[in-house]
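User: Run a structure prediction on this.
Assistant: Running it now.
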Amino acid sequence: MSIPRSPLSLVFLLHIGFEAPIAVQGFLAGHNLPFLDMNNTSLIMLKLYATLLLATCVGSLLVFSLPEFLPGKRAFAIVLLAYHSMACAALMQSARFIPHTFGTMAESMKVTPENVWGVAHGILSVGLGLWWQGTLGYARAIKQQ
């Protein structure tokens, strides 16, 4: 029996593509990331955060190929949804901590690296919500069998 797969599962790979670069750099060379006022304590916190991100990337890779109706995949999607939603809110409300600018016109429209990063998290959050809603039919069909 062939189990249908949703193309919406690509959101798990999108999570990896978005998070893996900063997670790897944060873990291996966190002191090279362009953050303001880094000290030893914040560097350790960054490395711990990077390890958590790497773990979610491994989890995303593992659940990507699983059937949509499995409770573990659905639970992991909720975890990622919560993470990306909260990260979006935190970044959108944060003070400037990345010493980079997209220019004066972008700054006047509040287009800062922190806001762009927050919007990216928001897009991933919406994508995970769409995956959840788009695959409810798979879960219902298996439950009724």
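DSSP finds six helices and no strands in the chain.
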